[in-house]
Amino acid sequence: MPVSVRLAALAALPLGAALTAFAPRAPRQEPTAASVIDRASRAFSKAKTVRATFEQTLNNPVTGNESKASGEILLSQPNRVAVRFTQPSGDRVIGDGTWLWVYMPSAAPNQVIKLPAKGKGVTGVDALGDLLTAPRTRYTVTGGTAATVGGRATRVVTLVPKVDGQPIERAKVWVDDADDAVRQVEITDANGLVRTLRMTTWTLNASVPASTFRFEVPKGVRVVDRSALVGSR
Predict the structure, then answer these.
(1) In terms of Cα–Cα distance, which of 49, 51, 124 is closest to 79?
(2) What's the pLDDT tens digit per position in 115-164?
(3) What is the dihedral of CA 101, 61, 202, 162, to 10 degrees?
(4) Cα 155 off chain centre by
């Protein structure tokens, strides 16, 4: 378009529109760590249920050992959780709101451990609930940098407990830019053990039967009650 024609076209525009045509675009504002974790927390708290499949990597920095597992996490708000492993097959952890049942036949086929659902030192089972329920009240939140998980654009934030002596030393949460889903969680406990959960699927308000959160002690399996040792919060 000739210069004279362009100038004539601009002259026909209102002054504000003409200035806007030459005004530089404002730089895109990067989300803050607080806004990222708030989005994830709101989406999580509004859901009655959560169903997610995961791949887990467990690293022990003391021994240098690494182990892998996979399975499914099912949550029913506010306090029921089921972790069912497909690898190792048959291992499971069930929280019925009162008790936490830990049954790991791959390692201890003849016993199940019974704990208070909210006992001291009981953490990591409901990692999502632990990190996404009122996160900025309980954690100092930093980060918010861009990262890609499983081909999804995310923001990663770091959470550090505000109160000393917690079972979790720090955690990282990768929050999906598009739908606020949690795509990955990395938890470092007080002993330095690092557990990474990469979510391969994430579904809110999925159909989850109530029976999912009932644990029936298998025949011949001994119940080891550790409620007295753990105590309540």
Answers:
(1) 49
(2) 988 754 445 567 888 899 999 999 999 999 999 999 999 999 999 999 99
(3) 80
(4) 13
Residue 48 is encoded by which pair of tokens?
Answer: 């009655």
Nearest to 118 by CA among 98, 102, 138: 98
Closest Cα partner for 160 from 141, 183, 181, 185?
A: 141
Angle, CA of 144, 40 and 146, to the nearest 5°: 25
Give alpha helix (H) positions in 47-194: 127-132, 135-138
Interaxial angle between packed helices 15-22 and 3-11, expressed in degrees from 0 to 180 and rounded to the nearest 10:
130
> How much of the chain is in helix, strand and coil states, percent to nearest 5?
20, 45, 35
pLDDT, one tens digit per residue, over 3-33 is 444 434 434 445 444 444 445 555 557 899 9
Structural domains of the chain in order of their starting residue, each with its CATH number: 33-216 (2.50.20.10)
Task: In whole angstroms, give the CA distance from residue 60 to residue 178.
Answer: 33
Cβ distance 119 to 227 under 8 Å?
A: yes
CB 150 within 8 A of CB 198: yes
Q: Is the pTM of this model over 0.70?
A: yes
